[in-house]
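FAQ: What does the model actually see?

It sees only this:
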Amino acid sequence: MSEGIADELDGISLGDERLNQRSRKVIEALAANPEASINAATNGWADTQAAYRLFNNPNVSPEQILKPHREATTRRIGEHPVVLLVQDTTELDYTAHPAKDALCLNKVSRLGFYQHVQLALTPDHLPLGVVAAETFDREPDSLGKKPRNDKLPIEDKESFRWLKGYREACVLASQCPQTKIVMVADSEADIYDIFLAAQEQPHPRADYVIRAHENRNTLEVNREVSRRTYHKVRDRVAQSPLRIQYTIDLSLTPKREARLARLAVRAISVAVRPPSVRTGLSTITHQVISVEEIDGPTDGTRISWLLMATLPIDTDEEVREAIEYYTARWGVETYFRTLKTGCQVEKIQLETRSRLLNCLAFYNIIAWRVLYLTYLNRTSPEISCTVIFADHEWKPVWRIVQKKPLPKQPPSLGEFMALIAHLGGYNNRPSEKPTGPLPIWIGVRRMLDYSAAWLEFGPEQ
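And it is asked to produce this:
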């Protein structure tokens, strides 16, 4: 696996072939032991220094490191009929060991930065790669202030990252014309500029499914209140006929227990007025889908979604499909958990912000790879494990776990991943949910130790 991940840097151009080769060695070393420190992951002090010099090189940037992975991701996107581009933001807290030029998170006392990631997923949640990763932080003087910035251009706001994400989705739609690209985002992306961009974008364009935050005005005057008051979108969709009821399986998250949720769904097409402070903008029309959980819990986890989409809603199946696209958004949360818990990126100690960001770019790819392996096992368990793993990786694991002679044919990916998960502490009981990333990355670490011993001392030597 650690060998395959270097392929994500094929074609990297750092201005020096020695740097290109070093980048491949660094990502292999870090991927082989993703939760270890840089010193522990690299092979001796010379390799550790080489990694530090790479991170510190002024000619190296996160964009350059991610560029070949982004190109590989685009190729994978083109192989699928539908791909979701899920974007979200997480915070990376380095308060305990900040870089000397670190800036702030939401408080002066908290140092680090935010990372906004665009992750490509198939509708069945297979992650195809990181399309973009943008970081930002805040000056201490800017905290605690709430300036009125309604009239500022979107380019001058932090929220511009969401519009950039939609534009990136449109670029992918033009690069992969046979693939339907759908941008998916939570309520922070409820930004009128995105709706305008989608309405004005020539084809091929990306679609979107965004959870609403604002209760916007329709074009209809609510004369029962006044001639200057308009009906609200939420009221209009709530008054529409019930379209479907069905049950979904909600997985366990840090905020809720796993449960079955019975949903009541309504869906209509609505024309919406621009914000009151931007009345010169055009009106927009999109589909609005109301998803309400029937008899849900009162602990704050009851489903109550208002989704805005450019997707068709003529049939019940199309409405359910749009909802399923939105629920795939949890994949980016799993990615962030893999990045922070699995790869331990908040424990990285580097002297400057630029070095830290260069190092983080490698871990962006590594976290994707762990997640990709986890979900590929769920979506394509029948393929041969040799598609992902080398002979010197699967053979020692088979011998150690199964305690049997090697089979004549390599096991399937599903069979082999069960062995990897077993090494990671997953018991594979019938009542258990499919394994998550944690047992996989622990199991892979052990596999790589066995692989090294096999190469050095194995029966084929």
